[in-house]
Amino acid sequence: MLEMTSRNPNHPPRGSSIKVEPIRDLKDIKSIKKVLSDNPRDLCLFTLGINTNLRASDLLRITAGQVRHLRPGDELVIKEKKTGKERRITVNRAVVKAVRNLLAARPLDDNDPLFFSQRGKVLTVPSVSRLVKSWCKAINLPGNYGSHTLRKTFGYHQRVQLNTGVAELMVMFNHSSQKQTLDYLCIQPDEIRDAYMKLEL
């Protein structure tokens, strides 16, 4: 057995974590959607991911039957893999359109997972991370991105674009403190920086 003697210098130290970022700029979201316009599966995964607060593990458990007949304003009911809790997600027009396009391009039975790999297997969370990284790289977006980028993007724009309250976001993400929510969504540093910039004495 070969012993690993070298280490990737770009890999974080053991025990530390890599913090992925949300996609902050709306124009970058539009650019990614344009890149994915000819790929119904990836466009649906991206659209569903950034329009909900679902983890990648929960996105990958959605079946065609759960979403086939959804209309804007309907609820998607799922059981979270991590917590075992039931979560009710209201879907918007963008999600419904992306789902319908995917199902039109790839007929699936009701019990089939919505997101298959090219080899006909269910996608994995690491696969989603690689996809997200590739989408961001395709538009030359600097930063660190992964599967959590999708739900972080949802939360970030809920706060920044819609001014959704931190208390509501805490409930959405099942966090125990406002600081945890703001840190998770990479918002707190932005808001602190903006506070400094707004005041000129």
Keywords:
mainly alpha, 47% helix, hpI Integrase, Chain A
- Tally of individual domains: 1
What is the C-alpha radius of gyration, as a whole number of Å? 18 Å
Distance between the termini: 66 Å
Helix content: 40-55%
Based on Cα principal axes, name the global outline. Answer: globular
Strand content: under 5%
Return the structural class: mainly alpha
Write down how many β-strands occur, each being a DSSP E stretch of 2 or more residues: 2
Task: Please name the CATH topology.
Answer: hpI Integrase, Chain A
Reported CATH architecture:
Orthogonal Bundle
How are the strands of the biggest sheet laid out side by side? 1-2
Number of discrete helical segments: 10
| CATH homologous superfamily label | Intergrase catalytic core
Helix-strand topology string: HHHHEEHHHHHH
| Whole-number mean pLDDT | 87
CATH top-level class? Mainly Alpha
Low-confidence stretches: 1-12
Biggest sheet features:
2 strands, antiparallel
